[in-house]
Write a structure and sequence with these properties.
This protein is of the alpha+beta class. The chain folds into 3 domains: about 110 residues, no CATH class; about 90 residues, Roll (Pdz3 Domain), CATH 2.30.42; about 180 residues, 2-enoyl-CoA Hydratase, Chain A, domain 1. About 30% of the residues lie in helices and about 20% in strands. The protein is globular, with a radius of gyration of 23 Å.
Amino acid sequence: MKKYLFLMIFLFCCFSLGFVSASEQENNPENKENKEIHPNYKKIIESNKDIGFNPDDEIFYRITKILLHQFYGSVTEKDLANSVADELKTLCDVAGEKYFFEGENFNNPLDIYEKVIKTKSKIPNNLVKYCCISGLFHGTKDPYSSFLTPEEYSTMMETLQAANFGGIGIYLEVDKSNDNQLTIIEPIEGSPSWIQGLQAGDIIVEIDGIPTKGMDLDFCTSKLRGPKGTTVELTIQRKGILGLRKYKICRDTIVTQPISSKVVFNDIGFIRIRSFGRNTTSAFTKALDELNKQNIKGLIIDLRNNGGGYVTSAIEISGMFIGKNKTIMSVKNKYGNTTPKQYSGKNTSDLPVVILVNKYSASASELTAGAFQDYKRAVIVGENSFGKGSIQQLLPLRDGSAFKVTVAHYCTPLGRDIDKVGIKPDVIVESESSSANITLETNSVMQKAEEILRTK
């Protein structure tokens, strides 16, 4: 996830800040459903509602150029032309119209765009333009490269800039092991979602009646977030229970701490990093200092369910253990050129370390684990991590809309590209139920961590 746009909002969706994001959906036939769900052409046409803005032609031209020359991936003019054509066919099907160009083929997306905007149709011209733009992004097969309407972009920026706002208190991910469904990674204790009984692993099938399958993660966050005191209705599918359940949840201001810590097993420090936020480094340093005062002999850093965050925080925390002027990670563009990201601070800890990861450890948390692993500075224990390492550039447009494009990947110090691969633990231990986060000393992952530290 993140990342690169890994928004950390108080919905706590798992994707990174600092415009860092990643693609986790595979190129499979089910992703074709994206065209029917977001944008939701059927809803727009049936309600006879204007889309609210009129994209100018320059937007389409600019996006096409950037996708062809800067997008991190292989995409051709023919690919984009075919994708725009497929998107227009979907729009025509929903509108009950015959496809504009039956039997015609286009080798360049600009050709089909210039022809379709001059074609007379009962479909509003601004919706046709919006459709063509969406087709460009579907042609990349990257769900984290996407177009944001003025409304969506405004909501996203409010999220980034707001200190406090309403949410329901859940961490989310589009889970590839859950058939690319919008999945709750963890409800935050004491939050509205926790009080209502939502559980880790629950699939959110609908948000206020809108199907979520294939929906862009940014769009989901905009639907879940809102003013304190307002409500949102979720339709939930839970493993082992037949049928769907509906939950009407009242939003509230969610407050959480990125760090929690304690002494476990009598003399081992435990620090859980929930996310890499602006203040995570200082909170981590304070927690480590307090643990050292209790004469700990080793340290467990728990990155399970950590969806990422600010990469700078990950570099600073990793560097405390790896050392000054060491490369913690690097950025690789589509042409293979790499830029190292180094730690400039001091080495502040020589403690033996075990790092815990699971399938929901993503982005900055994976890069942290990867750096420790490459330098053999810690033993990584748990499950293979998520595999989210792409970087997105966010480009605002003059009409108030914006788009984001994956332009690079993060790599570990030894040059490993983690996107869609993740970090393979040194010692594989499958995660237990969510109660493992409460009874720390009784679950198998923690016991294996203790065993490893005792040998050191």
